[in-house]
Amino acid sequence: MDLNGIINGIGTVLTPIKWVIEAILVGFHWVFENVFGMDGDAGLTWVLSIVGLTVIVRAALIPVFVRQIKSQRKMMEIAPQLKKIQDKYKGKRDQFSREAMQRETMEMYKKAGTNPLSSCLPLLIQMPVFFSLLPTLNEAKPDAQGHFHAGVGLFSKDLVESLYRANLFGVAPLKDSIQTAWGTEWVVVIIAAVIVVLMTGSQFFTQLQLVSKNMSPETKASPMYRQQRMLLYVLPLIFIFSGFAFPIGAMFYWLTSNVWTLVQQYLVIRNLPTPGSEAALAREARLARKAHARALARGEDPDGPGGIALEAAADGPSAAPKRETTQRQQPTSKNRKKKGGR
Amino acid sequence: MIVLEFLWLLPRNACVLILRGYRAVISPLYGDVCRYYPSCSAYTLQAIQRHGVIAGVALGAWRIARCHPWAKGGVDDVPQRRVPRYRITDFGFVVATGHGKG
Fold first, then answer.
1. Cα A179 to Cα A163: distance, rounded to the nearest angstrom
2. Does the keyword Endoplasmic reticulum apply (chain A) (predicted)?
3. Cys-Cys link to B96, which of A11, A294, B5, B25 (CB 3.0-4.6 A)?
4. Do the Cβ atoms of B33 and A103 come within 8 Å?
5. Which residue has the higher pLDDT, B79 or A235?
6. How far is B52 from chain A (nearest CA, A)?
């Protein structure tokens, strides 16, 4: 199966996106060459340009992510209504009850002005970027007469040639994949295999963190949880499969994106965990310990006002709704206090 | 007549088969994400069943375009046909109704 042929075909439809992608690549390449003084033809310079591209794309997606986190916070407020609907359909497993339940839940979300679901946009939006990057790498080669052709927009003939000749660590051409290098260039196969392992590992770890730490008990009881667990094992398989056919350069995009997700999720799980989840309890306990230590440092009795938080956290799941109270009371001046404002 | 109807309904039934396959294999992979009820793929499936391939795909595409993180979401059903012309099997295939042979 010629996967790259199909992908190149999709690529022609994506010319406008390709223009932007190539412009960003060229921009980063220029910066690494002229500002940091790196060798423009080196594989590393091109790899870093691809990493830069990924960072731009992921940074552009931050608002979507923040939006999702915010609406998940709001779920706290509508939890009682959700519980009511769930109780109404408790034990009813037939298709019509499930559908009616989903319908009511959606109506309730809309009324409350929130929605914990993110739509498939965050999943889909990286696809056109990736499918524009692939042909960019694949097309960077001379034609039958040995001439190079410029890419779209800012991607000049010289840069195309430079990308074509770019070897990572001086040995692995960025356009090569396990598929093309199999049997001839084992060093490429080994480097690609290492990237695939890193990619798969980061994906698995991210998903495992999400499933094991950042899910409320309600979610864990839902069919969605089963699907999430399935994803845990299926996605790595997809990565192994795609790692076989995709060029090394393109895999650096996925790898960077995975690492970004990993870090972003780590920060969220640590600082803004899903209420009621294991991570939320861990955060409560951590904050309580800190408050305890601070109280001791000030020479106060830790079982006084500071000690309350510790006990609340030790209560386990029942302490979760008190989440807001763990935020430190901001000091206010006497005047403002009298006004009653915040 | 039956052969003609079968041929007429063939494109939409082909789409039904593809969408059923997608809903069975691919969409469980990423779980519940749609901000609407029915979900985008269920909506498109119904739209194709009721309105045929061209109008159905257009309705489905418009729905996917509306489904983004800033959309309000909620219940959003496929517009009904005034007079339902065909029967829909349990699997989702559209077939000619037994009665009313024109």
1. 20
2. no
3. B5
4. no
5. B79
6. 24
CB atoms B75 and A107 under 8 Å: yes
Q: Which amino acid, B64?
A: I
Chain A CB contacts of B72 below 8 Å: 110, 113, 115
Phi and psi based region of residue A304 (left: phi greater than 0; alpha: psi -120 to 50; beta: remaining)? beta
Euclidean distance between CA atoms A65 and A58, whole angstroms: 10
Which among B31, B71, B75 is the nearest to A119, CB-wise? B71
Among all chains, which residue has been given the structure tokens 């997608």? Answer: B22
ipTM: 0.78
Q: Which of A69, A154, A160 is nearest to A115 (CA)?
A: A69
Tell me if chain A has a CB within 8 Å of the CB of B29: yes
Cβ–Cβ contact A239 with B under 8 A: no
| Calpha distance A162→A156 (Å, rounded) | 10
Name which of A106, A207, A232 to mutate to probe chain B: the one with the most chain B Cβ atoms within 10 A of its Cβ: A106
Q: A279 is written with which tokens? A: 């991570």
Q: At what angle do helices A43-60 and A62-88 cross, to 10 degrees?
A: 50
pLDDT, tens only, A186-213: 877 888 888 888 888 888 888 787 777 7
Q: What is the pTM of this model?
A: 0.70
Q: H or E element: which one contains B20?
A: helix B2-25
* The residue to which tokens 């005047």 are assigned: A335
CA nearest to A119 within chain B:
B34
What residue type is assigned to position A31 of the chain? V
A183: left (phi over 0), alpha (psi -120 to 50) or beta: left
Q: Could you give the CA distance from residue A235 to residue A238 in angstroms, rounded to a whole number?
A: 5
For chain A, what's the residue count? 342
> Do B69 and A234 make contact, defined as CB atoms within 8 angstroms?
no
Min Cα–Cα distance to chain A from B11, Å:
23
Q: Do B28 and A118 touch (CB under 8 A)?
A: no
